[in-house]
Amino acid sequence: MHINSLVNITSKAWAMPILSCLHDKVPGRQAALLATTGAGRGAFTASMQHLIQIGLVERNPGHGHPLRPEFRLTQSGSDAAATASLLLKAAEAEDQVLLRRAWTLPILAALSVPCYFGEIKKYLPKITDRALSQSLQLLEGQGWVERSVSAADRPPRPVYCAINTGARISLVASKQISFSPQEE
Question: What is the pLDDT of residues 137-162, one digit of tens each?
């Protein structure tokens, strides 16, 4: 999976948990997915519509009532769902809330090696300075990212490194996520 795809998927809070559930063979009906993910109806619907729009999930034709449809993964959705499942399983259940934040997984994917702020921004060109700064502070407060100041640099610059749960997720992400230029 390319980093831009991960950024697109994680723009909706429940997209990764939905993909993970479908990968783990949770029935594709709305009620089962709602119960398993714990999502609210509105957020679930928005995330599901987003996944359909980007071509990772589709309605299962011929199955389900029009008001209670059944969903299934597309071919590209199967690959994304496998990645989502691996990434979510790298964290504890109580940490799932933080993984639903838009930039958490892309930032941790970028931190497979220690990085300066500007290097992270280069990996994630769509992120604003403010969003990156706030996300890094949140991850640091959670104990997933460590900020240290490189005294060798002039002027001194902070270096960010994934630690603890963040390091586990970053390790999984480094094997699944590509940062190479993507042909559009």
Answer: 999 999 999 999 977 778 888 999 99
